[in-house]
Sequence to fold (590 residues):
Amino acid sequence: MNLSLNLRAMVGRAYPRLIGANREPSWIFYETFLPVLTTAAYVCIYKALDAPKEFVGFVVIGGVMTAYWMNVLWSMAAQLYWEKEVGNLQLYMIAPMSKMALLAGMAIGGLFTTSTRALVILTAGIYIFKVDVDVSSITHLLLVFFLTLGALYGLGMLFSSLYLLWGREAWHLSNLLQEPVYLVSGFYFPVRKLGFSLALAASILPTTLGLDSMRQLLFPGAHTWRILTVEIETKILAILTIVFILLAKYALDHVEKVARREGRLIMRWQ
Amino acid sequence: METILTKDVSRTFRTKKGVIKALENTNISVNAGELFGVLGPNGAGKTTLIKILSTLLLPTSGEAYVLGYNVEKEANKIKPRINMVSGGEFSGYGLLTVKENLWMFSQFYGIPSKEAKKRINELLELVQLEDKKDSKVRTLSSGQRQKMNIIRGFMTDPDVIFLDEPTLGLDVTTSRTIRKFIQNWLREDRSRTILLTTHHMLEAEELCDRIAVIDNGKVLVVDTPENLKQRVRRDVVLNLVVEPVVDVNWVSSMEGVKGCLARERENGLSLLLRVVLEDDTPIADILAGITNQNARVVHVEKKEPTLEDVFLALVGKGLE
Fold:
């Protein structure tokens, strides 16, 4: 593998997203103000119900991670479909770079807007919704956060191979995944409330364990609703990161071969 | 060794209406330093051939090699050394400037930024797009956009470049600039190779060292433009102007007629009929047939054969 080529490719593909964020600043409104409103709605419900104070914190952390899930789903997994529609995919596929580098470039480019959204929600949580955080270990928190992102983006790369194969049907896949994942990952509530078995099954999604661990590390009372201990969840997240990235590499290579055989790289509007 | 070699390459596509044969037992070989043209009407299989050679599509059967590597099994060895430009291509991102867009694509080939910017500036000047280098891509006209695409393809300095109708839909001046650039690029280094598809006869005649005439997925003939014209030199090529416009489909089925092309003239009042004949024998019958339809031949001219006549004689119909 040519590391220098792939690093350059990554930077090259990240560039339009970074530039886009500067040249079309309207995203600031859509990506910050509106998501804060969604989070605020859940906060209001919990406050009205007089739920345990940790629940407001859960919502805020869920809102933060929603930004990354949306980025993975719409701006990375679905992106190869859009690239085909606009005519870039063929040029990407004949280029010598790894397709993983291309997808990583999309992810990195999108991290700026996504992290801004996440940061705004976090800030709103602390200063407007008065969420009390008590970080037990900042190192562990950062480790869990980055492992969750690693596994999540690996999963996104895996999904992107499906978009390459399915074309327009894959659009429905994104719609299909968006809301159910909010539910089973427990973006706005502790997923343990769905029952241990379902929570464990949902742990195949990196956001489920990532959110659970981060909540335990940020809010001392959160262990009441935990799925597993932070240590075990961290190990599983590390395994998921490796597995999803390896699976994505295999799937992308395999799907590229299938797509070349079936002519799916060259047909638009399918 | 051939730079491009295909051995009995066939490609079919499954559609709701059945199986379409896009290419059938295609055999071509292209040497280094050649500008090889693939000439054929829309749907002849030209683009399918380019997609196979550029590693985007696998042949259903047969084998294809580029730079000695098998397109199916060794695509990764081919990719760093090739590039492709298509006519009417909409590549890149509209919010980037021309220079930014080109730089982005250069990174996919691992070209160091400084080197990439130098090459981009040189090519911008060569294709006369320098004044648009800082314009956003979405503001470009189709001609300017195609010049940018040409730079995108050539800036990686490929050993082989595939040009799929590169002047499609462009005005005369832009087409001429692009053709001149292509010719000079090949002259600079004869180890380079170009495979160009077109349905413009003049473009093929002006640019190509050799031409493969393709129709319905089959390669009908491969030769130099001069030799191809030589093939029909003994034939009789006639241009007739017929008034008013009448049905002349029957001409192509007459004995001794190798090809026939009828085009209604812009005024809509007359018809330009071009026929390729084995000898003079059918002329009288053609004239009589037209007269019998209450039309008259207002102009007759015997022409030197062109590449279009070669195509007419081989395929029996015109390109357009």
Notes: The radius of gyration of chain B is 22 Å.
